[in-house]
Amino acid sequence: MQVYLPIAEVSVNAFLLLGLGGLVGVLSGMFGVGGGFLMTPLLFFIGIPPAVAVATEANQIVASSFSGVLAHFKRRTVDLRMGTVLLIGGLVGAALGVVVFNYLKSVGQVDLLVKLCYVVFLGVIGGLMFVESLNAIRKTNAGVVPKRKKHNWIHGLPFKMRFRTSGLYISVIPPLMVGVCVGILAAIMGVGGGFIMVPAMIYLLGMPTKVVVGTSLFQIIFVTAFTTLLHATTNFTVDIVLAVLLLVGGVIGAQFGAVIGAKLKAEQLRILLALMVIGVCAKLALDLLLMPGELYSLGAAGGH
User: Fold this and answer.
1) Predicted structure pTM score
2) Which residue blocks in 235-265 are alpha helix, DSSP H?
3) Could you list the residue ranges that cross the membrane (predicted)?
4) Each residue of 82-96: b (16+ CB within 10 Å) or e?
């Protein structure tokens, strides 16, 4: 069933969009990632203009993350205090990101720079998570109890705060900085930033994996809502029809994802997310390598 998207100005199969929304919703509920890193490239692939894909996807992330958070609230796996600290950093980062995005736009080549950011971030993070998860699974199978690092350089920083749900007593500086980085990415790349935040919360802050997912989703809701608002009011690129179809699929999918995530071990969740990140990175890198002819022809056309 074909539907016409007024802002994107293309016709797309409605069931395809529902399916994509559902897939990203499942990922959101399972891993605590908004799913934008996967959905935004998928929308490019089915013919949605990049500007519309980025703005509308931020809108869809809000809904699927909200649905996922509700499921985690029921299980009490959301650290509200940590989420609030991350959120403050996230809003500052989103505002900075909009400034950076406008600068890149004025320089030109913003699409290429955004895609290169995706490839670098996804490649590094996916690779590190994959190696770490494999080692954790090996140790578990060998019967070795993994030692949790109780102290690192973070514990020497000032402005400490107690995060009871996570069982932590650490400085607020690292969570604020993680939030700022995620906010910048949300504004520039149209992503929730969960693929950066989840590993940072596990490995840098030392939070328990089960609490990380719900807390990540809590922060993503507000940062992506803020980003969507900025896109809608400055670029007018939020396609309501596209957003609603992705939204319906995402909300349903997030509930299933939260149930699946609760049944899997922490190491299995991390290795699945790592594989997903590496897969998207490979696809984007391949597209960049296969498209130089088109980029040159665009440059030549712009010169006339």
Assistant:
1) 0.67
2) 240-263
3) 12-35, 82-104, 116-137, 176-204, 211-234, 240-260, 272-291
4) bbebbbbbbbebbbb
